[in-house]
Amino acid sequence: MAIDHHKQNMANTKHIVVIGAGIVGAVTGLELARRGHRVTIIEPGEPGGEHAASYGNGGWLSPSLVVPLSLPGLWRKLPRYLLDPVGPLTIRWCHLPRLAPWLIRFLLAGFSARRVEKTALALHPLVADCHLRHDELAAEAGVSDLIERKGQLQVYRTRADFEAEGMGMTWYLRRLTGCTWTELNAEEIRRREPALDSRYTFGVVLDGYNCVKPGLYVAALVRRALSLGVELKRARALGFRSESDRVTAVVTDDGDVVCDDVVISAGIHSKALAAAAGDRVSLEAERGYHVEISDMDPLPRNRLLLMDGPMANTPSRFGLRITGHVEFSHLNEPADWRHAEVLKKFTVGAYRLTHNPDRVRFWMGARPSTPDYLPVIGRASRLSNVIHAFGHGHIGVASSPNTARAVADIIENRPPPFELAPYSPRRFSLLGRLRPIAAR
Ligand SMILES: Cc1cc2nc3c(=O)[nH]c(=O)nc-3n(C[C@H](O)[C@H](O)[C@H](O)COP(=O)(O)OP(=O)(O)OC[C@H]3O[C@@H](n4cnc5c(N)ncnc54)[C@H](O)[C@@H]3O)c2cc1C
User: Fold this and answer.
1) How far is 226 from 141, CA to CA, in rounded Å?
2) How far is the CA of 28 from the centre of ligand 1 (A)?
3) CA 401, CA 380: separation in Å to the nearest integer?
4) Which of 89, 97, 108, 340 has the most CB atoms at less than 10 Å from its CB?
5) Domains of the chain, with CATH numbers?
6) How far is the CA of 45 from the centre of ligand 1 (A)?
7) How far apart are CA 437 and CA 21, in angstroms?
């Protein structure tokens, strides 16, 4: 019986090309290899390198990541975002005409409580167990030390600020999706984080883990995948060769790669490839910044969110990483390092700490974001053996293991682990939404 099952698996084994070795591509490649498929990852850069969003993010892995950015009432704050060039959310005037269709969809996605409830419930299965899945992956890749298992402390000036967060929706949505947290008063905050400024009088501790160096983590996952026989091709995917409705090879700047199936997981660069496979998706770069201070005294004890920033502080043996800000600009526009300066100044001012100014590094990366805060996961409309796995915005690290499981199930024609309709690549066009389910 066991032999028959093995034979059946071998018969179903495919050669799958995964485009991109960010966190989504790396975890997907590994999942497919574990299931016995032959996998080639196509990636022009160093896996885990600075060019990718997966390098410099905050590494927060938590079931609480179900709250979209666009919430009812956000539109009232739009003028401020347009006027403040270095605020937590900025929109560059000159890019407004190009960004307008995305921004309108973004505001509509958060227009009513009903819509954001639907979004939070759709995100729930992607992130509910994400910390545990990453714990297993890190152990498999031999880098358990990159996962910090302490939860996240969020601090507010007052309890009223906590209640008002996200136009009053944040904690409602977290409760709706089963998240739990512990509340702290001023004294308890001080006990946990003695160096923190006394203006913070209310706090919560949220469940979850943290990846303290996501770039090293991605590199380790790719190394693990290679040890299972995955091939890494250093090239850029340019498009597809196809026969009728199927891709026969991925065209790269270093020749064609013949394959049975293709996964598009090229982060912010996925849009053109998705269009070549038949889907016009709405995807924009939400640029974010980080500051790494490798020499500071004392190092904060907790992964901590300063909610009056807002910004995330992640201490580890590598120093302190400060992440935050959303900047709508053009992908290729030079970074505006004033954002990183704001993150640094705010954090340094929030603790009684000293740092060595020579040991500070700035980084900027592009979150691959859809306007409705949901990734794109599913078969392409024209080329049926292409599977989309991109658009993870603010939660790409957290949601990568469950994305990978869903992608592998699609490829193997198995029922996916959760309902995929909310992630459909066809949701951005009226025509796509009207297509009969059977034709998808
Ligand atoms: C400041 C900041 C903080 C964040 N904090 C968190 C957090 O706390 N938790 C969380 O879960 N998420 C967080 N995120 C979001 C997270 O970083 C992203 O969602 C995630 O990294 C996206 O992963 P990806 O694999 O889709 O894209 P990327 O990491 O960008 O990888 C895409 C890869 O595809 C490759 N590629 C591009 N084009 C091609 C091509 N044509 N052919 C072949 N390869 C190609 C690129 O070289 C790159 O390596 C944060 C992001 C930022 C910017």
Assistant:
1) 11
2) 13
3) 21
4) 340
5) 2-439 (3.50.50.60)
6) 13
7) 31
Q: Which residues line ligand 1 (CB under 6 A)?
A: 19-25, 42-45, 51-54, 57-60, 236-237, 265-267, 269, 288-290, 323, 365, 367-368, 390, 392-398
Range name among 232-241, 387-396, 422-431 with the lowest pLDDT average: 422-431
Whether the predicted pLDDT of 5 surpasses 70: no
* pLDDT-wise least confident of 81-85, 236-240, 330-334, 335-339: 81-85
Pick the residue whose CA is nearest to atom 37 on ligand 1: 266
**What distance in Å separates the CA atoms of residue 21 and residue 40, rounded to the nearest whole number?**
10
Give the C-alpha separation, 264 to 273, whole Å: 7
Compute the half-sphere exposure of residue 287: CA atoms within 13 Å on the CB side of its CA. Answer: 22
Distance CA 129, CA 208 (A): 9
CA torsion through residues 23, 24, 25, 28, sign: positive
Cα(396) to ligand 1 centroid in Å equals 7
Rg (CA), the chain: 22
Q: Which atom of ligand 1 is nearest to the CA of 268?
A: 30
Select from 395, 397, 417 the least CA-distant residue to 406: 417
Query: 129 C-alpha vs ligand 1 centroid, how far in Å?
Result: 20
Pairing of strands 246-252, 311-316: unpaired
pLDDT digits (tens, 9 = 90+) for 56-86: 999 999 999 999 999 998 888 878 888 889 9
Residue closest via CA to ligand 1's atom 20 equals 396
Q: What is the pLDDT of residue 435?
A: 64
pLDDT tens-place string over residues 248-293: 999 999 999 999 999 999 999 999 999 999 999 999 999 999 999 9
What's the full length of the chain, in residues? 440
Closest-lying ligand 1 atom to the alpha carbon of residue 54: 21
Give the sign of the dihedral formed by CA 159, CA 165, CA 170, CA 174. negative
- CA of 186 from ligand 1 middle (Å) equals 36
- Whether residue 232 is predicted with pLDDT greater than 70 in this model: the reply is yes
* Confidence band for 430, pLDDT divided at 50, 70 and 90: confident
Residue type, 236: R
Q: In angstroms, rounded to a whole number, what is the distance separating the alpha carbons of residues 255 and 257?
A: 7
> Which atom of ligand 1 is closest in space to residue 52's alpha carbon?
30
Q: How far is the CA of 407 from the centre of ligand 1 (A)?
A: 17
